[in-house]
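ok trying again, last paste got cut off:
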Amino acid sequence: MNASDRTPADLLRSALAADPARPLVTFYDDTTGERVELSVATFANWVAKTANLLQDDLGATPGDRLALLLPAHWQSAVWLLACSSVGVVADVQGDPAAADLVVSGPDTLPAAQACTGERVALALRPLGGRFPQPPAGFADYAVEVPSQGDRFTPYAPVDPDAPALVVAGREMTAAQVVEQARTDASELDLGPGSRLLSGLAYDTWQGLSSGLFAPLASGGSVVLCRHLDRLPQEDLDKRIESERVTHTAR
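nice, full thing came through this time. structure:
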């Protein structure tokens, strides 16, 4: 990664320039048996499409607050980087009533209705599938995102020193996210080629860092596991071996 990177979106651009084909996020859901592997290029494409949706269709501008009501999931990681690309503050598990817009999974739709701004719903189905019946009052992410552009350019420059992330009551600027992610990566001894398996939720900084930001900042990758507690130890050992995991966070 480049020393000049000051936002998470910068980190992704550097990763894309360095090795677009390498894995970045490998996702498992141990209730459905789903496995999805996204290279840097594929992940960046999802981020670009989502950022275009956020900026153009949803009308989000730098400084707007987005309540992100999603679990640890590859699509949650996409939204975090899309927010960084636009300059929108990602308020993880934040109050929808206090947000300019909300992005919700299927389990938090009732709470998300408190948002008076734009509302987006994710079914979180395998392969990014759509809702069988779109929830009333929400745009279905799986319906809206495929037609978005594959490249993204923000209308306004993103300020690295502006608020970018709120998690567990802690507000961080984009530059602080990058700095803390680099510190965490160093403390975990992550580097290029590292594979960190994380079973942590996305509702704390540790979960976000282990499950996305620290691997991204170090040139490594993450094996992100949802419902890891339902996986027998024998199967976990096999996953660690097959995925060439070098570090774990559980």
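cool. The chain has a mean pLDDT of 97. Residues 40-57 form the longest helix (18 residues).
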